[in-house]
User: Fold this.
Amino acid sequence: MAVASLPAKCDRLEPNSDHDTLSSMTFDLTVKLCGMTCENDVDLAVSMGADFIGFIVYPHSPRALTLKRAVELAERVPEGRRVIVDVETCADALLRYRDAGFDHFQIHAALPLDEQVLAGWSKTVGPERLWLAPRLPPHAAFPEWVLQHVNTILLDTYSKDQIGGTGHTGDFEHFATLKQQFADTRWILAGGLNPSNVVAAIERSTASRIDVNSGIEHSPGQKDPNKLRELFQVLELD
Assistant:
C-alpha cells in the first residue's frame, strides 16, 4: 500500500491537534488493525484499506473472541488479510486455527522460548505465515536464532503484567536498530500507536509495517470509527 514519505524529523509523540501527516515522496506502508470484535468495525477497516485485520482468541484479553466468532468475523475480510492472534499457542490449537482458514498466525511468547516449540509452530503453518511476537524486555538482547524459524517479527511494548494492548509506545530506536541489523526479516511495530503519534513513531522507528489496536478504540474491543478514519487520513491511505 503506497503512502507518502516522512516530513522533517520530529521528536514529539504527545497528542497534537494539528496532526503530522506523511507527505511528498511515496513508499510502502503496511497497516494491520487488531482486536476487532464486531461486524461494523471489521467492515470499516476493510473499506479503509487495512492490509491485515487481527482477531484475538487469547481468553485473557479484553478483546478475546471464541474461535467460532473469530471465524465469523474473518469471513468478512478478503483472503490473505486474516490474522489470528494468540499467546503461546498449543499445537492442537494452531492446527485448528490453520484449518479454520486464517492466513497468518500471530503468536505472543515469553522469552526464553523453547526452540522445539517455535520449530513446531513454524512447521505447522510455515515461516512465511507465522508472525512471532516475542516479549522482549527493555535492553534485552534479541534472540536472533528465532529467525531460523520465522520471517516476521512483531515487536510490541513490553509489560510484565500485560500482553499487548497496553496503550504505551515502545523503544523506537531499538526497533530501528533491529530492523537494520536483520534486514531480511519483516518487522512490525506495535504498541500505543494512534493518529496523534503514528507519524513520529514511523519516522523514529523507520517502520514500514505497523499494528494499531488500542489507539483507535473508545474502550477495549470497541473501535472508535472517527479515530480509525483519522488514522488513515493522517497516513493518507483513504
Summary: Residues 123 and 227 are 38 Å apart (CA to CA). Confidence is low (pLDDT under 50) at residues 2-18. The domain at 2-188+208-234 is CATH 3.20.20.70 (TIM Barrel). DSSP finds seven helices and twelve strands in the chain.
